[in-house]
Amino acid sequence: MPREFIRIRGARQNNLKDLDIDLPLGELIVVTGVSGSGKSSLAFDTVYAEGQRRYVETFSPYARQFLDRMDAPGVDRIEGIPPAIAIDQTNPVRTSRSTVGTMTELNDHLKLLFARATRLYCRGCGAPVRRDTPDSIAGELFSRAGSESPRVVITFAIEVPANFSREEVEGLLAQQGYTRLHARRGKRLEVVQDRLRLTHDYRDRLVEALEAALKHGHGHVTVYPLDEDRQAGNPWRFSSELHCADCDIDYHETTPNHFSFNSPVGACETCRGFGRTQGIDYALVVPDESKSIADGAVKPWQTDAYRECQADLMRFARRRGVPVDVPWKKLTKTQQRWVLDGEGDWEEGVWYGAQRFFAWLETKAYKMHIRVLLSRYRSYDECPDCAGARLKPDALLWRLGSRDNADAVLPPKARFRPVGLTLANKTWQALPGLVLHDVLRLPIDRCARFFALLELPKPLDEATELLLAGIRTRLKYLVDVGLGYLTLDRQSRTLSGGEVQRINLTTSLGTSLVNTLFVLDEPSIGLHPRDMQRVIGVLQRLRDAGNTLLVVEHDPQVMLAANRILDMGPGPGERGGRQVFFGTPKQLLRSRASLTARYLRGEKGVGKGVGYIFSGKNVSDPFLEVRGATEHNLKNIDIRLPLERLVCVTGVSGSGKSTLLQDVLYNALRKLKGKPVETPGAHRSVLGHQRVGEVVLVDQSPIGKTTRSNPASYVGAWNAIRELFAAEPEARERGYKPGTFSFNSGNGRCPACGGNGFEHVEMQFLSDVYLRCPDCNGRRYRPEVLEITLDGKSVADVLDLTVNEALGFFADQPAVQRVLEPLAAVGLDYLTLGQPVPTLSGGEAQRLKLAGHLAKAAAASSSRRRAGSRKKAGGKVAASGKGSLFLFDEPTTGLHFDDIRKLLGAFRRLIDEGHSLVVIEHNLDVISAADWVVDLGPEGGDAGGELVCEGTPEDVAAHGASHTGAALRACRDDLAAMNATAGTTSTKSSDIRGDASVREDGEIVKAACDNGAGKVPTRSGRNTIEVFHAREHNLKNVTVNIPRGKFSVITGVSGSGKSTVAFDILFNEGQRRYLESLNAYARQFVQPAARADVDAIFGIPPTVAIEQRTSRGGRKSTVATLTEVYHFLRLLFVKLGTQYCPDCHVPVEPQTAGSILAQLMKVHRNREITLYAPLVVARKGYYTDLATWAAGKGFDTLRVDGELLPTADWPRLDRYREHDIELPVGSIKVTARNEVALRELLQRALDYGKGIVIASPHPAISKNSKKTSPLPSGERARVRGIETKTDTIFSTHRACPSCARSFDALDPRLFSYNSRHGWCEDCYGTGLALSGFDEEQSGEEIWWTDWWEGETPTCPSCEGRRLNPDALAVRFHDRSIADFAGLTVQAAGELFRTIRLRGREAGIARDILPELQARLRFLTDVGLAYLTLDRAAPTLSGGEAQRIRLASQLGSNLRGVCYILDEPTIGLHPRDNRMLLDTLGKLEGKGNTIVVVEHDEDTIRRAEHVIDLGPGAGVNGGEVVAAGTVKQLMKQPDSVTGRFLASPLRHPLFARRAVRLKGRGADPYLEVQGARLHNLKNLSVRVPLCRLTCVTGVSGSGKSTLVRDVLHDSVHQLLLRSGKGRRGAGHMIGCRDIRGVEQLQRVAEVDQTPIGKTPRSCPATYVGVWDAIRKLFAGTTEARMRGYGPGRFSFNVRGGRCEACEGQGIRKIEMSFLPDVKVSCEVCNGARFNPETLDILYKDRSIGDLLAMNVRDATEYFRAHEKIHRALQLLDDVGLGYLTLGQPSPTLSGGEAQRIKLVTELAKARTGTEAETRGTLYILDEPTVGLHMADVEKLIHVLHRLVEAGNSVIVIEHNLDVIAEADWIIDLGPEGGDGGGRIVVEGTPEACAKTKASHTAKFLRGFLRERSSDKDK
């Protein structure tokens, strides 16, 4: 098999230099190179972006807006790319409910396991709680009785219904034989079931009595023992539900959601599943305890806003004698509590305290600034009600496992005790197993041990075993990647980037996807060298499963384990972006051009040439000492960190490094310095902190979000440079200041781009476009400013200099040199001074931060030197001051060996300046270069947190128990070996960083290199999708194998389970596994389906589904909107269209403010107006910040969607609705006297509105104006973009130069048929004059599509173009958007292929034109080139609609995915079917898997693999009858499909009925005259009555138009009028006249639309038998006694139905970002009715039992009831005997729904004189859709049965079996669209087959020749 590649041509993303490269699929490829060389640009911004973008495009447009679709990369083309998943270091979920368990889906598995396999223990006594049965209760009674045989009374309780009296109930009980009552307690009666003595002789009687009592007592029974006087003792209570008899506590049955804190069912009601509640951290309120009250110890009261509180505190403190001038820490505890707690409320005139102050703030938390203030002092405290367990109390009573299992991993004293437990602690600890919270708190390695030892009680079903296997596998993966120290309840937001990536890696491994591209960003981050091989093993396992891995990495072990290495470079930035080397690791080691190879060979070293070990200094003094650190897993350790040194804290993952440095040291020092950030981790003290001036945490977070932030401004160089330019003589002469040369503010920057240098064009669903600013040509400044030069260079020229060039240019400027030099020192000399900071890589950003600190240090040193030179008195020199302490967390992340060398050089400079550095690091080069090393461990998690050793690197290397020491020793041994063999190029030299001695598998790195280098992995398993033991719906534990990369068909009789396999299992699972890679926000909108009931699925790639749709679209849908061509046309017109005035027909131009003023004076003279400035136009969001901004500017209100809302009390807007928000600038009366004030007000409004202002002739609405009054609500207007009676829009940008009318900025809504901004005001976007249609209707309503019976004349206002005049006046290349939409697909494709754009137009249309061209090309490929883009969706044929959906879905051009199609041949003529199969063959040729659910014979015979399900339907199906090639299928005797393929139907099955339409004695017929609707060409045709007529022809030939739109609708109208005694030709629809209608009684269309939309609709209700069944139940004695009527047995109304599920039998549980889950109602167990209703039995069956009964059984059950029996027998006759009476209609297939409708018609059919003369005309549109060949035979019988009953049947059909069975054929064509609409041939099948001009005849001829019944004779 030839190798497959991802072919990249012309990649130019970021700094890539037109890179061409072929990446082989199925390999592990490492991308390396110096920082900034283009690694991430290639791997993530190019390859991943394209793979992710193409797959996401297969989703709907609505879904895509939430899916964070990646931007299209800068590349000429990429071919052969599979769907891509990025496994990076970002964690998009910040909620506290996201944990390690939820990220890995272990929580989902655990909640299912706990719901299945746990035991409940009573919270009162600790005894096991179980369900009682009559036998178990009897056994318990005998046990309690012992040797005695006491008498007992067995009772059950009954509640008296509200509509009954107690006497009435007692009377009813007496009628049933219950005459004795034990007790009456209010509305509760205790009824005696039996009295007996507890002897074994009476056991049977006892069990029978208990069974009856449980039944009547709804699961509860009470037994009273009697003493010798027959007095009742204490009751013994039992229950068939969960009930503790001793404590009398009832428990509820659990569902999986009871164990989920992300579900409202299980989450603690107090904390809502967060485990914490919000409070106030008073350590942050008083951050600096050295301050006194008077000095501002209470921080929140030191601002102007709350200075009053400070004054109150001072006043009350003096009254109470609390000292205000002593430090806070010296106040007594009582005094401190007085300040914080207060004495009482403010209204009482006493000190209220900080606590009440914050309580008052909480009441104002709806205000943004208050929320911000509160966030600064928040504490997050453990929830008091769940103690952090997050779950409701009862969920924590269910325990998993045995006591031995629990003791092996968690001591009894450490186990969690739920809040509110009354059980003794000793008893609780002795219970077996663990509760869920115990499991979640275990370190993952111990958790894995727990589940490995776990043995569940038998019998254990397969599902539970599968769950347990899934949990064990996932835990193993987490341990494998070195995360065994984490706990499952660890919040995901506290994880490091490396931990997040490794968790995502295990998740991806757990998905078992294949044919997927995984792109990883340094998976080695955070891993100790000892653990590296674990990650490598996971990567190789993912690769060996059939995936491609592209890994950005610098670690030698990972590189040497790869199949190939791509080395990018040769330098960073503009010197990079090229391929330096691409080949195997062995080849890399021999490369001379690669800098990476030189380091791997040992020719270059990170520490060479730099004396990092400062042996000349005394490392014993000074020290910073942390004592008694006990946070998390730290074990009361004391750590001494030498200052003014490079200290490295290392240790295996999870050993406590980050806890020590960040949680303890950093937070403690910040608090000690009076600048707290978070509460410090637990420790006793920090000594020596006085020697540190400032503590700084340096990480790799972005340092700027705007493009105006750059390296020069970050290090402070730009200020000095601007001062130099301002000092130039010409600048001084012009009065230029340094601010003039700023591109962030001032008047020197370009006003057009605001100093950015480019124009940002938002492209909605495409990549945004950045164009060079046309005004300044990308130079950022006004031309006048650029005239000022410094040594011949302008300020823009200086921004283009690299740091290296700038150092030379400013060689004589020490101030500039001093701040630029640190950039060069950290290796960033290649950056330009003006390079936007957001474009920097993570490593570059970190080094830029470091450069900033170096610059500060240099500035401080310079100032000290200047101060020292001035202050020399008495031989005394100024003190050097305190140095800063810098903390780095893995600073080598993302850094190449060469970058690490530069980084260590920068570290040395900081130390030389007197600063101290502490780094967390695993990199052996950094550890070796450190002055002092602190090694924590010895392991991770609970086994860590100890100080293993500390000292110099040599000391650590000599320590025998240190894993770090072992790695250092191995590194040095290999280095010595390399030096001994210097001069030779050996792969052994690459082992120097391999840590061979501590590798678990004992292999050395050379072996890893030899095994991985250049070898394509051997794939384990076959190249198939394997589904094991599927039980979804009616599948019976089936196992299915589908070959990948092949064309497979799944077939079988209707209802056999085809769609279940294809869509509910294959598609849902493939898409769900891909969607798991998306963020949680996206998943809540594109909800992945719930997991199917299947044991396992292997080898599944990402999937794309192309399903049937019953609707073709509404009146506003067109070919262009369905294919999204119109979306891109709208975007093209918004960005590049030219607005013309619709009245003057001239292009709009800018106008001056003076012109607008003149118009206001003219139009609104002597009227009071309000001027509004538009701030937000058609954007979604809350806009709380905008309201805060407006309030700060003094505006009390904003107008939102026409409503005035207060800015101070801003309401919560609808987040998902588009809003228009305007600022009411002010009001004024327009008079000549007020012209100056009006001019000023207008200018303010234009400034706020950025050139647009809205004038509204109303009273003022803002307090900012002198006159204010509210707007009358009836006069508000929201219409924008047009002039209305109320508001007028004026624009300085867009106005007609002829009539001065202003226009709003172009908006996509202006061109939308669905928006009031764009639609024609008369037809509302339909293009038709529809009577009764208004703006409240969407056009999707059924009465405007399927049931529309009127003429559809073109709208006279827009002439059918759907849009208003403003929209139609926008032109692009001299065409309106309606002109483009009026083109055919072929013409539009040719136009967009030949269109030529230049300059700015070309840049903006860069991504739009390819999208348009691709979609139009695919429409042509599926044979739809003749359609016009504005063709309305309802006018499309079924075949055209299906192919349009195919075209819109299949254009993604992906490789390796699994396309799943649901009967794509629907509506296709055999000719068009061949075209479709050719298209699918092309898809298969691209390496995709094609799975088609199909019954079409041609498609099945074309398939390479066929799976036949059956043998029957419903409960009789769900098995794999046969699988293999078509030939193999035909040999299977059990395969119905194979049997029909081998022995197809012979025709005719019924004797052909003669047809004579002309002459004397002609048969009755309908005649359509002059049909002209749509593409019909004045067609006249006769249709014989009382015959089976088939109308056929190629797709789009006019079949549906003739039969459904003309014949059906007109006949319906005529019959309707004839019933009223009228007739007239004026009511014909689409034709001149129809003759012969008087011979019909009615017309009925039987289609495949669902028979109902809710689960309450079912076959029994649709065919009309349910009413009769309800009456039978209402007639039973029990029902009459209870007063139940037929309504009691309805699940649609209240009374008898289960109210928990409202009679649906199922409940939908919303799962936030997880898929919604539909579960059987736990109250009625899916029976739909309440227990009282289910108590009523008819022939030993309840009403719920009947709903679950299938039709075949019900037919026999109701044999005595003729009406019910006949309808059910008909259902069985048409092959629907497998359906249950209560099967929800949404679960029925289209074919099943159609046959149910046919049954209702058959039930109405009658024989006799009336039936023969006045029959029904039945019209069926492709009734074979969804029908198997066997079902087609049944359908043919049904159709003939209807005809035999005297009815007429017209069938639109392409199925040759049906065509061959017709009495008469009408063939339309000869082509589709404009080439159709004519009668090609009509006659019998045999006569039509002889016609050569008919496409149908070509296929029918051969079909009849092969399958004629005469052939068998």
- Total number of helices: 67
Q: What structural class do the secondary elements suggest?
A: alpha/beta
Quote the beta fraction. Answer: 15-25%
> What oligomeric state do the depicted chains represent?
single chain
- Give the fraction of residues assigned to helices: 25-40%
Low-pLDDT residue intervals, each spanning 5 or more residues? 608-619, 869-880, 981-1021, 1260-1285, 1346-1351, 1711-1715, 1807-1812
Task: Tell me the radius of gyration.
Answer: 41 Å
N-to-C span: 50 Å
Mean pLDDT: 83
Number of strands: 65
Large-scale geometry: globular
Query: Mind describing the biggest β-sheet?
Result: 6 strands, mixed
Side by side, the strands of the main sheet go 5-18-19-3-20-21
Plain-language structure description:
By secondary structure, this protein is of the alpha/beta class. It contains 67 helices and 65 strands. The strands form 18 sheets. A six-stranded mixed β-sheet has the order 5-18-19-3-20-21. The chain has a six-stranded mixed β-sheet with strand order 26-31-32-24-33-34, with helices on both faces. Helix 18 runs parallel beside helix 19 (532-544). The radius of gyration is 41 Å and the shape is globular. The two termini are 50 Å apart.
Question: SSE layout and pairings?
Answer:
Elements: E1 5-11, E2 19-24, E3 28-33, H1 39-56, H2 61-64, E4 77-79, E5 84-87, H3 100-103, H4 106-117, E6 119-121, E7 128-129, H5 134-145, E8 151-159, H6 166-175, E9 181-185, E10 188-197, H7 203-216, E11 220-226, E12 236-239, E13 242-244, E14 249-251, E15 276-280, H8 282-285, H9 307-320, H10 333-341, H11 353-362, H12 368-375, E16 378-382, E17 398-399, H13 403-407, H14 425-430, H15 436-441, H16 444-453, H17 462-480, H18 497-511, E18 517-521, H19 532-544, E19 548-552, H20 556-561, E20 564-569, E21 578-583, H21 585-589, H22 595-601, E22 623-629, E23 637-642, E24 646-651, H23 657-672, E25 685-687, E26 692-698, H24 711-714, H25 717-726, H26 729-734, E27 758-761, E28 769-772, H27 783-786, E29 789-790, E30 793-794, H28 795-799, H29 803-809, H30 814-825, H31 842-870, E31 883-889, H32 897-912, E32 916-920, H33 924-929, E33 932-937, E34 946-951, H34 953-957, H35 963-980, H36 1005-1012, E35 1024-1030, E36 1038-1043, E37 1047-1052, H37 1058-1075, H38 1080-1083, E38 1094-1098, E39 1103-1106, H39 1119-1122, H40 1125-1136, E40 1138-1139, ...
Parallel strand pairs: 3-19, 3-20, 5-18, 18-19, 24-32, 24-33, 26-31, 31-32, 37-50, 37-51, 39-49, 49-50, 55-63, 55-64, 57-62, 62-63
Antiparallel strand pairs: 1-2, 1-4, 6-7, 6-17, 8-10, 8-11, 9-10, 11-12, 13-14, 15-16, 20-21, 22-23, 22-25, 27-28, 29-30, 33-34, 35-36, 35-38, 40-47, 41-44, 41-45, 42-43, 42-44, 45-46, 47-48, 51-52, 53-54, 53-56, 58-59, 60-61, 64-65
